Every structure is written in C-alpha cells, then in structure tokens.
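Repro:
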Amino acid sequence: MKRHLKRLAAPRSWSIPRKDKTWVVKTSPGPHNIQGSVPLLILVRDILKYGLNGRESKRIINEGQILIDKKPRKDYKFPVGLGDIIEIPVLKEKKIVLYNEKGKIILKDIINKDAKAKLCKILNKSLVKGGNIQLHLHDGRNILLNQKDDIYNVKDSVILDILKNNIIEHHKFKEGNKALIIGGKHSSRIAKIKEINVNRSPGANTVVMEDKEGEFQTVEDYIFIVGEKQLKMMDVKK
C-alpha cells in the first residue's frame, strides 16, 4: 500500500485545495476507510483552521488537544469519519463529523449531552467463539452480545454510550423510519423511508425516500438510520 497520496487523487470528500501542492497526507489504517474519512491533520488545518500549516497542526495534535470519541489522538494521519465526536477541551468546543450536500466532510457544533453518545450503523454481524454474536459497526467498533440479546440486523443503527461502549438505543432499518443520506446527489438529506425495493439481480437494492421536498430514490448503502433524538444533531441545515 502506498504511503503517499497526490492531492488530485485525494477523495472528493476532502475539503482541500487541489492544485496548491503536489502531495497531501494520507490516512493511516484505522476505524474508517480512506473514502469515508479525513486525516486528523487535514481536519485541524483545513477544516477547523486551528493551524496555519502542517507543522503547527501537528504540534496541536501531539499535545493531545484533539479528542475523538473521548480519546486524545496523537497520530496526525488518524482517520476521522462520519459520526465521530470531536472535542477540543481547551476551547470547550464539541462537534460531530457529517457530510454536506456536496458530499464533503464537515463539522457541526453540538451540545454537551450530545457528545456523550454516538450513532453507529451496523455493517455486519458474525457468530464468534462461545456462540456469541458480534456486531461490526461503521466506525470499526465491535459489540459482543449473547444470542438471547440479539435483536439487531445489518443496516440497523444503534446509539452507543461512548465511555462504556454499550448500546443504549436501537433503530431498525424499516419503512416509516427516518434516515440520513450519506452519499450520492441527495447527500445530507434526512427523509422517511417510504419503500424498500429488493433487487433480485446483481444490482444494488434501492430505497424510496420522502421528505418535505417530495420523493426521491437512492441506493440502500447510502441509508443511515437516525432516531428522533438525533434528527436535529445530524441535520446540517439546522
């Protein structure tokens, strides 16, 4: 795997100047893939604009001034992605990572109580040793459950207590529930699921969504279920 990345080849979700310089820092392996995340250095320098250059931004990061999901991260290549909770204690700032309507990674201010929990999408689940069930979440976390407690399905969303790493809320992927669109031309819209269409061919399943602007269709992979309590926090327009 290459350890460097040209700016022109960087994911379109990164809000960086493309022709300023040739190279840009690349994310290290971590909880999010490169397409769905941004290196911590770029977040501090280009999005938060706390450092004038890479050197200043690295110093801020090395001092442990940036917390991600309650943990200080000192790797300037650490991948920061959707739903991550960013805290800057010295400034008393708390933010959540979201996508805007152009699919760019942005930050939105949140209040103290919203910074204690995190919304995660279940990407997969597996049976592990001892007959337990393990949920694989979109941010790289794994949650271990007894089989009798397994009420969760792939594509559902859960609310985690960040410090205890346990599930405190569950939202199903089903018609009638609301979801955040995390890709495509409808990115950042929050709408209600009207119809789920299962495609029997190799093509992707599609979902018909409905909001105050009308109906639209998107692919199943772009659906991120949100609960009523998270609607305002996840809406980039509010």
